[in-house]
Amino acid sequence: MWIILSAVFVQIVFLLSVFDIHFHSPIVKGMTPYANPIPAPAKRLVLFSADGLRFDTFLSYGNDREPNAKFLRSIASSRGKWGLSNTRVPTESRPGHVAMIAGLYEDPSAVFRGWKENPVEFDSVFNQSSYTFGWGSPDILSMFSKGTKGNVMSYTYSSESEQFTGHDAYKLDEWVFEHFERFIKMAPHNATLSSMLQERKLIFFIHLLGLDTNGHTNKPHSTFYTDNLRYVDQGIAKIEGLINDYFKDNQTAFIFTADHGMTDWGSHGAGHPSETQTPIVAWGAGINTKNIDAAHWENNRNDMEQADVAPLMAALLGINFPVNSVGKLPLAYLADEMLWKSHCALANVQQLSRSFQALTQRQQDRSLSLRFRPFWPLESNQVSAHNLQQIEASIRSGYYNESIQQSLNLMDLCLQGMDYFYRYDEFQLKMFITLAYIGWAGILAVFIIQERVTTSKKKTGHQFRLIDQIVFGLSVVIFIVLTVEGVPFLYYAYHLLPLMLWWYCLRQSKQMLRQTIRLIRIRHFVWATFLLGGLEFIVAGFFYRWFLSVGLVFMSLWPHWDQHSSSRWRHHETFKSLWMFTFLILAMFPVFPPVGKHSVPILVDIGGMILTVMAFWSSLVMHHDRDRTVLVCYTIAIPITLYVRHSVSDSLVQGQGLPVLEQALSWILLCLPLTLPLIGPSLVWPRLIGIVITLTPSFLLLSLSYEGIFFAVLVVALAIWIRLEAAIPATDSFWTQLRRSYFFLFLTFLSFFGLGNLASLNSFDPSSVRCFVTTFSPFTMAGLLLWKITVPFIAVSSALWAITVQHQLSMKNVYLMILLLSAAMAVQFFHWVTSRGSWLDIGTSLSHYVIVQFTVVFVMLLRSVVQFLTHGPIYFHATRPTASKYDKD
Predict the structure, then answer these.
(1) CA-angle at 680, arms to 675 and 684, nearest 5°
(2) 822, 745 contact by CB (below 8 A)
(3) Residues 6+ apart with CB under 8 A from 204
(4) Domain count, the chain
(5) What is the pLDDT of residue 447?
(6) Given a cut of 60, is residue 283 above it in pLDDT?
(7) Is residue 128 predicted with pLDDT exceeding 80?
(8) Domain coverage including residue 838
């Protein structure tokens, strides 16, 4: 057990290390805010956030050949500025709104630390405003109302209103527009509210969730999505009219943008351009309206980064720039009042310079003087101060354009310097984690070899004492240095873990090294080469799924090219043929379109019927009456599942909501596997069949397309694998066991990538969980999606358990081999993770590494799940008076 716990701990450290290497919290506290001393042109600002709006949809036309955003396009072509706002991964609502309102890009892990509330306090334009009034989703508004000085007032609908079913998601936006109209019309009759609205530095935040909901439910190319955009466009025109009629001073600025886009199949979260590209339109007070060519306005884009929206709002209102903002003021959007404009640029560069200085000081305080490496273009505070003085001198002399250019140059240097300190420990941490990977692989190899060779009991105490002394001395030095530098707690694990792993490996390996060398033959190098090539097929499958198909074709030939075992399969020709046929069918799935892009309910029904027939046939051939009765009862749950799916679908289409009975049945079917330890069969084959049958209902309830068919074929392949392995003696070679571990690893990754590629993680269709929940609940939905991914993993793990039981193998040895193979893959993905390049590259590299590490941890945890499902006295052969004919070999 301690080996499993150690493995989980090591894998978690490896997983967390990539975030500390490449992604850092941008929050630095205790900094002085900066604002433009020149009076701002806008007294108030209205921010429209069209959640989930794609850039291309914003420019699209409807079937009537009219623009889908007619009003906003007319603004962009006549009296405003527009462009493309580039978001960053993860393209989710929380980080997107934090970027546009606070000007900072959150550490990606913040998405998991909190959704509705801030995991950390950060400054934003809302904090710096005199008052902010917001309308929209409770999930978004609550993020910015927590921890403020009481100046942010939120008006939200209930969470139950966020239904991911039906075709009336536009009503969420209707609620926002109606309540804003009531608010404005009520103001003249409320003295307190009227007084608040006369203040300068007001912000009205209009969050519009209908597009995101319609995109998830009906997809972005549906008429529901584009009609929702038209409704939003009309609502914005109405709000502008209400604002102008109430204030009558033309001192209102308007900004329209989106937090993220959406893929064609209605998902977001990764780095595809359809997810990262959103529109932005700005008009009103303080916005540059010169040189607008109405005939060619689409070619006059002024693109920006999403974090640039925050300094733009701060400049228009004359408020403090958010202290942790990394946004760069998009000067093309500002009116040509050069004194004000140059001071806006100065305030922006002062804020960025202060952020850079704070990061420099923080790193200098952490580092010993000999280890500190400054950012040489701004190696001292005097350099930054001198540059700022030059900018101020240019403004005083009236050289506004020159001062603006100087500000832009210094902004670039400050941002480069901040990036430098964010990556300050990158090389050092990568080196230590790589050494830890090598040490971990060495320990796994030592454990595996210890089971194969007889080691001498003779101790070499002097050599061990020397190793102990060296490792202890290095550990003390590293610990002292890290303590003096005040590094985060996890840095101790990153630096000390490789020492501990190498120490244990060196102590254990010397005794068996000579005996291991004697056992090595040339053919072992050939087998090792083939094994590494097989691992690279899995690695390539992360990028191109068809590599998995090629790998499955090669695996289909295994009973024919394994001459060592073929003589034992003379009486299993049928199974050999079935193995080839089944794996060739499995090879088709990785070339199918990923699940999630299109919903095909008829394929779910076909998969359910296939699994029902398989389950009934497997149940009825049981010879033991109790096993037959239990399995038949379990099998009845599959047709019930298909009924629940159709009943829920009909109810939602008719607008009647999720039926309570069907929802209760769905949750009961989800918990069906929990009954196996209590009433499940005690022979291996019936227990395996019971595991598959009880997992099937929840898997089908969460399915959208061909998942059920894939699961049925996978189960058949696993059954044949168990049968063929049964003919191989338990005392077979080390390489046979390693081959089994490779098959398990390949089938495990096939369980994920056979149904989709990387996009399937974020191609989440809310309709897949509609039998369980229909309101927006991110963690419940994520948990259900995770369970769906886990079901095939459990089936593969159960097959491996059966093989180890029938051969009376040690599960420890099998998992050690799996961990060793996984480490060889994971170290490659570790070095491929990047925070540079396109956001698609960044998101893909990070997701690949997370998938590998999570899969390894999953394999460890699924061992406990399988142990639970197989709890009780389990027999492989018929040790009882009656047994299934499957158990008579």
Answers:
(1) 135
(2) yes
(3) 44, 45, 46, 47, 132, 133, 134, 180, 243
(4) 3
(5) 81
(6) yes
(7) yes
(8) 536-887
